[in-house]
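REQUEST
  id: r-88c1
  op: predict_structure
  target: Site-specific integrase
  payload:
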Amino acid sequence: MFNYANSGVTVSSILDDRRATKDNLFPVKIRVTFQRIRKYYSTGKYITSDGWEKLPNSKSKKMISMRLDIQNSFDVVKGIVQILLYDGGFSFEALNSRMTKSPSDTLNAGFKLKIQALLDNEQVGTHLFYLDALKSVESYGGENIPYMAVTVDWLKNYEKYMLKLGRAYTTIGMYCRAIRSVINEAKRAGIIKENQYPFGNGRYEIPTGTGRKLALTLQQIKSVANYTDGKETTEKYRDLWFFSYLCNGINFADMLTLKYSNIRNGEICFLRAKTSRTSKVKKEVCAILTLEMDVIIKRWGKKSPKPDDYIFGYLTGKETPFEEKDVIKAVTKLCNKRLKKIGITLGIESLSTYTARHSYATVLKRSGANIAYISESLGHNDLKTTENYLASFEKEERVKNASFLTNFG
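RESPONSE
  id: r-88c1
  status: 200
  body:
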């Protein structure tokens, strides 16, 4: 009913029908298989063969309760296996030793569970982020932080520690949300109780950075799009930035994984990698293929392309998830390096790949576009996320409004 496999270790919930009780019930066990050796771990649950067949889809309260109990037992064993694999080695001796303890009795262990699950799901970017968050947490609290130790005061002191290191509130907020996510898992598993939960109203509230407003004006965008120093490399990265801006502010990770098959009926349609795994409803983002975008594709795209070819040719499709991540990171870094030089020449502060996305959203806002439309075209799941992208209280607006104060005539 429940199954997990990784690195040669298999965990399954099974009905051990080798010997029945007097009531013709069989024990439900968690079976772990490694190198053709099988070990069985009790769930404390018994059921008939017929009941076992009906259990996955049964809607009776009793059966649902049993199913949840079996899943909890399965998750305990699976969690320990994931931690052992993360730490570099699985053995039945180590598994049996850990079975006497909770697999997530520390914040560190909870992070490792999360990190392994993300890796199993090939969510490479988020996996790497949680690795960084764990390093930060351990640099402050050590490698054995009990959940009970993560109190409101602990979190406030962690925030102060990060500020002393020169970290921005945006970074602190991101790491604290990672901590909260791990603690939420522990709460759902019953490892901590509601009165031990440190987040929320009247407890610790995660700080939010105001964020840098990176949007350009239309005149600045025009100057970037027309810029040249006579070097082909500069023009290529300039065009990739402009394509990102025109393609609904697409981020570079999504742009570099676009295939010719994403071009349909005069539009480029794609799923955002950032949200496609976490959203129940998979919403495609569609951008009109403008003349300018078509010119960029023809200039820098693959010649005589096939539908499954990547448009910009940095990827082949044979890369592992980590290799793909490295390629995207390298291209983005090189592009940002070139954009910085362009920005210095044009007098534009902090010109980067990310500026294209902010500029797309803000130009539409300045033009009077509906925020709901902007949100949909960016691929956001809620309007609040979109509002954070929009340049609020822009200087040009403040200057215009200030002039009204003395407009006596």
